[in-house]
UniProtKB/TrEMBL annotation:
Record function comment: Structural component of flagellum, the bacterial motility apparatus. Part of the rod structure of flagellar basal body.
Keywords: Bacterial flagellum, Cell projection, Cilium, Flagellum
Designated name of the protein: Flagellar basal body rod protein FlgB
Protein family (similarity comment): Belongs to the flagella basal body rod proteins family.
GO biological-process terms attached to the record: bacterial-type flagellum-dependent cell motility
């Protein structure tokens, strides 16, 4: 087993790659803030199990009718609720839904989370070097 096969390092690498890709998507949102009919995008954060392996995405939530007064959900895609779907509440008359303030907050949080992941990765490597007597 090589050092690269350790689950904690693999999970941290996956997390750092996700932050890099999210940074690209957020930068694309900012750069298209004046493009008519542009809808901002974002990525779903990866989840890890107890062994550090990335697990699949979210399963859609199904609607449940708890009262006879509720409208019966139609079958198909509209019968489920996508918990990851975010609808911007500010859409300009040209159809652009990018909020620069919201995008800057996401960029800032993404940058801090990336710094935390790289710090943990570096400290994990330092611990491994110490454990084998080369640190």
């Amino acid at each position: 087993m090589s050092i690269n096969d350790l689950p904690v390092l693999s999970a941290l690498r996956t997390k750092m790659q996700w932050h890099q890709e999210r940074q690209r998507v957020l930068a694309e949102n900012v750069s298209n803030s004046d493009t008519p009919n542009f809808k901002p995008r974002d990525l779903v954060e990866p989840k890890f199990n107890s062994t550090g392996q990335a697990v699949g995405g979210f399963a859609p939530l199904s609607l449940t009718r708890t009262s006879a007064a509720h409208i019966v959900p139609s079958s198909g895609e509209s019968a489920s609720f996508d918990q990851n779907r975010k609808v911007g509440f500010q859409t300009r008359p040209a159809g652009n839904a990018v909020s620069l303030e919201e995008e800057m907050l996401k960029v800032s949080a993404n940058q801090m989370d990336y710094a935390a992941a790289t710090s943990l990765y570096g400290k994990s490597l330092h611990l491994l070097k110490t454990a084998i007597g080369k640190g």
